[in-house]
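Exercise: predict the fold of this chain.
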Amino acid sequence: MPPKAISYRVKEGTTCPLCSFEYRREKLHSGGGRLIAGNLTKELRRLYQVSKKFGRVYPLAYEVSTCPNCLYSSYENDFNTLESGELQELKAKSADRRMQIEKILGPLDFNEDRNLVLGAASYLLAIDCYQKRGIDVAPTPKKAISAMRGAWLFGDLHDEFPGKGFDKVQSLLYMKAVGWYSPMLEIMSTGSEAHDKFIRLLGPDTDKNWGFDGVIYLNGYLSNKYLDQITTTEEQRIAILERNKQHLGKLYGAGRSSSSKPSVIINLAKDLYEDISKQLEELKGTAEAT
């Protein structure tokens, strides 16, 4: 008996709006011991144990739709919603997309079943394509989520193939995520990009959608982790930390968990709040001493 498959191809074909290439999207099968949930990281990533039946499975690798011919990539709901200007620009950049991604990962064939390499590539391609999309598809949150997920997968690639420079790509993607999470927080407050276009994708992983709470927490986590890289003065550091502290304080509140705010996100936010408070004390103390 052949081994059970990790994924399957949907029956209905998909036609790329850029190049008219037709292919069948690949989806991850659910259940059957394919995903054995492990710990949740401080970045809200769900780790999975290696399955005896299926080996290591990367559910994130199946989230982005990518045309195998021209490498146009997006989340599924946006795939066929291109405006004429977007279509023309993305079509004109098809050769560039392939050249740039293959500089990093070598020759790629998205006709093959998804794996770690294709999954990591799909997020770089999605970021590149969303750079050329208008606000109607809410590109900023999708770039932020794609950068976060891509950073995780390139970290996995570095673990599998050290010395290939994948850790450098991971660092770049983390910095991209830092740059997009702050405006995403603003977008969720103002509605400048439609919530219904991205709210179901906030994750940041696929096992649970932490929604607005996750955005608040991760914005604080990322800007705190990369504080020295995104600031040049103590005044900037203090301003960012104080803003994050205010947001995190509202998130964990009195520390009571509920169905909308599970204890795990409250505890993570509280720990980060306390860490930021200590940093602020040290920074302000240094500033006063000088």
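Check your answer against the key: The mean pLDDT is 92.
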